[in-house]
């Protein structure tokens, strides 16, 4: 009896209410995105919105079961969760169903399981377990290498599908390492790498290399009396040259045409609103046409006539913008920001380093999905095809995000103990 009272009094109900609100908003917008006048009922189980209702109910049950488990269970079994997801990621490469060019789903009857979604919470758990070990320090090279391998193994398997969008999600976990003491120099390196990537795509690689060499020469002149700084600049120059050639090779020889096209559209190299830029153009039209208050529920013309592809999944935010307008977008974005802020607050109040590190893993994954998904629908980021948490259609994504979030809620409910 006391355990049950503790469960309901210690759990963070602000997060649960926000979670349920986002799920309900997603359900109604999925209904609007794929609305069929011949099947008008929102609980018609033959439609995607009817199936999403089942996914939501089952997700809530999964969340409740997680809250009933012991908090120590997730720390103890994190290697097993990680191992199972790796096996599933290998299995999907053998028996998986190819949808849209990605072999990312395992067919189970009429349902399709996407292992890459579940790898997110499993990787967060194992990373938290490793980094919370008593002798581990993020500042040590050995620790950084092992942490990188924990993140890169599922990333590499997902890239083989190939599902670049889901693979990129794991890069957000570097934010966890920063919280635990990783040097800020790595953040500078990341920023410079992004800049070099953009410049290499936009301009000739040799022109970029000449620019880098001139900058390095200027810095060496300015720091000519500091041998350590000259060494750092020299290493940076070598890294930059190798990176530029790598980007040029990957862009021209590894990326698929549709992936290159998406980058070209965002960077302004190509202006083709009726061709390769069609999806993005229609997405922006749908969101912009909603105005301040939107066109009204089930009244979106871009939505109703299927101008925006994948509108119930990757582009669900277009439905919010068109039918609920700026006000609706403001509410949805506000809910996400509140959720992320609340997760960070929860992470910081943990007495256990495992719980704190896992909390930042949850925040990193959710922030990446939120920022990238909305960013790609309004043209700020290339379209990479990842769902908007709790809003997009799909059982695997909803269940995985639910597990990710509710494990944190369980760990938080036990924060007065040691996990």
UniProtKB/TrEMBL annotation:
Domain of life: Bacteria
Membrane topology: Multi-pass membrane protein
BP terms from Gene Ontology: cell division; cell wall organization; peptidoglycan biosynthetic process; regulation of cell shape
Keyword annotations: Cell membrane, Cell shape, Cell wall biogenesis/degradation, Glycosyltransferase, Membrane, Peptidoglycan synthesis, Transferase, Transmembrane, Transmembrane helix
Entry's localization field: Membrane
Keyword Transferase attached: yes
Pfam families xref list: FTSW_RODA_SPOVE
GO cellular component: cell division site; plasma membrane
Chief subcellular location: membrane
Gene Ontology molecular functions: glycosyltransferase activity; lipid-linked peptidoglycan transporter activity
Transmembrane segments: 7-29, 49-69, 76-95, 141-160, 181-200, 206-223, 230-251, 324-345, 357-384, 390-409
NCBIfam families recorded: RodA_shape, rodA_shape
Record's protein name: Cell wall polymerase
